[in-house]
Amino acid sequence: MVVGQVVEEENEDPIPYATIFIKGANKQVLTDDKGQFAIQANKNNILIVSYIGFESKEVQVTSHNIKIYLKKAAYDLDEVQVVGTALGLKRPAKELGYSATIINNAKLTEGAPTNTLTGLSSKVAGLRINMYDSKVDPDFKVVLRGYRSLTGNNEPIYVVDGMPIPDINRLNPNDIESITVLKGANAAALYGSEGVNGALIITTKSGEKGKGKVEYRNSTMFSSVFLLPKAQTSFGQGIDGVYSPTTSQSWGPAFDGTMKDFGTTLPNGEQPQVLYAAPSHDVRKDLFQTGVNVQHDISFSKATNRASYFTSLQAMQIDGIIPQDKSTRYSGRFNTTQNFENLTLSTSINCSTTNSNTAPDGPWPSLYVLPANYPLAEMKNWKDENSLGNPNNYFVSGVSGLQLNSPYYYIDTHRDKSRQQILNGKIEAEYTFFPWLKAMARIGLYNSDTQTHSSITKYDTYVSGRNQSGSVSDGSAFIRRVNGDFIIKANQKWGRFAVNGIVGENIRDDYAKSVNISASNLLFSNIENPDSRSGDLTGSTNISRQRQVALYGEVTGGYNDYLFLTVTGRNDWVSVLSKENRSFFYPGISSSFVFSNAFDFLKESKVFSFGKIYAAYNKTGNVSGISPYALNLSYSQATNFPYNNLVGYVPASQKPNKNIKPEFVRSFEIGTQLSFFDRRLNAEIAYSYSNSKGQIFQASTSAATGYTSTLINMGELSNNVLEVSLSGDILRNKNWRWNLALNYSYIKNKVIDLYGTDDTEEYSIFKVLYAVKGESFPSVKVTDYNRDPQGRIIVDAKTGLPSKAVNLTTKGSSVPPHLFGLQSSISYKSFSLYFDFDCRLGGWNNSEFINSMIKAGTHPMTTQYNRKEYIIPNSVIQQTNADGTKTYVENTSVYAKGSDKASYWSSYVAGYTINYTAKSDYLKLKTLSLSYNVPHSILKRLAIISDATISVQATNLFIIRHKGYDAGDPENLYYNEGFNGWRQQPPYRTYGFTLDVTF
């Protein structure tokens, strides 16, 4: 038996939990809290001692009691461990032949985000995150390095503690130790189809060494609405200049400050009146309340020489900016690692329950099309039969397509409720056969059970067309994913050569079931139950299952600690393809050259600290565009078919194509990492190219075949991406530190081909979004006016009215090609200031609700000519010469007939999508945070508190948008990038404080 202690060479401080191997034998121990150890070793055995941040050391046993001194390693980029690479394995950064960015917990939680993705936004070059709407429980769209699929999934894979999961919306950001962003298919090749778009590798917290630690964190944030679209305040309700008390449209006469009738006569005989003038403030803002978000987090962590533990609990409640909108989340996590000689067992369990109650779509859309003097406050008491907001007394006409009830009536009678319970976790065992050979088995489970309840309260009125019959829809959605890996890891070193590799197997089983039952024509206003109805129930059930088996391997060879080559390969067998095509193989290769380690003059340089160049190539199969059973012919039930009351089955309109193969994405990447002045200045520049062939999407077919579409393997999409990341300490001394980080990316993608023919083609994605051969994807195409060669609008010589161009006009990409992020952290003694900016340039956005405002007469452009007939600016009159040629004469006298009428604005302005499509450029101050770390000299008086931090935060403090953009926050989306829907709620900014205490 040999006993001893491991200490630091510089000051002889003990090193707890250092690893000690007997060279050539299968024995390993860890030092305890005081750096002490005991190991069964014989005289002359060689002990290998290692600890992160120190140089490894070999020591020969010469006595039964020894002291081992470890020297601190020079802190350099080539020694930094990437917290998580593919499959949750750790690798030194110097070996990586691709770009990877690490975001630690401190950066992630600046601004107290409720969602992990919010904390990542703008911090990583090439990573674009957009929030859908601004409700209490929003969804997010995440894209790394642009689109690779025209119709399939373009989001990266999410991996938590080595286990792929469908999404991370319910993950507590405060539980996360770090996130490694692996960019592109090269970095995530071992994950198969889901890794083709890159990966977010999330490592949750584990026990901290030393004595146990209890941490409590409270964040209280307030939110207020901002960036409402501008509205005109010159004209009130009416049609074509004539006042009408019963229309919600703002095409009436100019405001004159008089009292005018409003709405119909009330049941008590009163005729309500309102001041016909724009109020001193924007009445629309009165609909919104101050949102409140309160988070309570408590955690406990502890690590010994045999085990580590981390457990946490979170309670969060959000009150939204729409009255009555609420969301709550309760979550818990337990992570543990147990060491038994050569066996290490790890478990991770996380569970969460999220409840939400929201008003779907309607309150805000009804408000932005109402007159400026709309008496919103009087609509709250809508249940009173003599209230202006009562459905019997409300407006009787409005803009087609929008509901015509009071916003408060809508809030009270239209509700969406949901309850989601998520359980996910893993069990992992790693056995060390020899210091150079290990085996790891891991199995994980992800369960999501969501219950939904959507209702419209029954409300009977005596006004024709105002009855609300009531409806209810109950749904459930269950998702289960089982994922298992078995991996063998080996590493060896012979002189200057080192080799490490893995070989593994993956099995995955995805199961999903959804059920929906709905009923209309409810019998009672206070019973929202499908059984309380008249008429039949409607409903559906959907069950799907998808399986995947894979074999994979990776080998990395290194020479003299500066030249590395990595080869990967994976073969998948997937159930969504036919037997003939379900097996496919894809390889990858990457290399890195750490030239700062290769040349002596660089090693001795006081200016140059680190330098690496890297390159990678990868081919990855992608089947994300194929859903289970898509290659089978499905049938649905049809009543009264083939005749009378017989029930028959009709085939789907999509023709099965069993010859479908995976999309294959070929990716290439090259880059460099540089560090100067003892790592005070760091830079990374990377270029990547990807080409996706055999795109899987629906193609139209002749209905004469009995089908209207079929899946095909056609089309090609390419991406060129340039990324630049700079960071450094501008100021660093005893009291001050100022760190600045800048990231920039340029993304240029292009649709190379669609249907495999030479003709110019396009594929409609959604609304104004298209895939156009030879153009960026997605392209924004709009309806435009007929124009002359100079771009001037051609109008009729008699009416002065324009006509519509035959072809749509391509404005550009809905995806901004230029992305900038700037983060700054300034600390002085106990104070620290953090802020980050987000900037996106070059994209286009179409705003559907601006269309509605134009039709309703509430948008400012409808008052540009004081509601008088006008000459369309930049218009010309076409003339045909005797020889058949055409000339265009500037229009200076022909007024657009009817341009003072609502019908003109609806047809000739709102009818052309070019009028509400604008550049989505913006620059915003995304986060601002000021923190104060309470000095230990003060905390000593409170024996139980070891650390305390008080901070104040704010988000979205200001934004600069393109002058033509008037549709809220360009970062917020609805449905798809480049599109704002008329149902979309306006954005908000937050401000509040956080208290973090450690015991």
How would you portray this structure in words?
Helix 8 runs antiparallel to helix 9 (902-909). A hairpin with an 8-residue loop joins strand 31 and strand 32. It contains 10 helices and 58 strands. By secondary structure, the protein is mostly beta strands. The strands form 13 sheets. The protein has a 22-stranded antiparallel beta barrel. A 5-stranded mixed sheet has the order 10-15-16-13-14.
Number of strand elements: 58
Name the average pLDDT: 88
Uncertain runs: 74-81
Largest sheet report: 22 strands, antiparallel, barrel
**Gross geometry:** globular
Number of helices: 10
| Helix/strand class | mainly beta
Helix % is: under 10%
Rg, please?
A: 32 Å
Determine the N-to-C terminus distance. Answer: 38 Å
DSSP strand (E) fraction? over 45%
What keywords describe this structure?
999 residues, mainly beta, 22-stranded antiparallel barrel, five-stranded mixed sheet
Write the layout of secondary structure elements.
Elements: E1 2-8, E2 19-22, E3 28-30, E4 36-39, E5 46-50, E6 57-60, E7 65-70, E8 81-82, E9 91-92, E10 100-104, H1 105-108, H2 116-120, E11 127-132, E12 139-144, E13 157-160, E14 163-165, E15 176-182, H3 184-187, E16 199-204, E17 210-225, E18 238-239, E19 242-243, E20 259-261, E21 273-275, E22 291-303, E23 307-319, E24 326-340, E25 343-358, H4 363-367, H5 407-413, E26 414-434, E27 437-456, E28 471-494, E29 497-520, E30 538-559, E31 563-574, E32 583-593, H6 595-598, H7 600-603, E33 608-622, E34 635-638, E35 648-651, E36 654-655, E37 663-676, E38 681-693, E39 696-700, E40 709-713, E41 716-732, E42 736-753, E43 762-766, E44 769-772, E45 779-782, E46 793-795, E47 809-813, E48 818-828, E49 831-841, E50 844-847, H8 848-856, E51 875-880, E52 886-890, H9 902-909, E53 917-919, E54 922-933, H10 936-939, E55 947-961, E56 972-973, E57 979-980, E58 988-998
Parallel strand pairs: 1-7, 11-56, 13-16, 36-40, 46-51, 50-57
Antiparallel strand pairs: 1-4, 2-3, 2-5, 5-6, 8-9, 10-15, 11-12, 13-14, 15-16, 17-22, 17-58, 18-19, 20-21, 22-23, 23-24, 24-25, 25-26, 26-27, 27-28, 28-29, 29-30, 30-31, 31-32, 32-33, 33-37, 34-35, 37-38, 38-41, 39-40, 41-42, 42-48, 43-44, 44-45, 45-47, 48-49, 49-54, 50-53, 51-52, 54-55, 55-58
Helix pairs in contact: 8-9
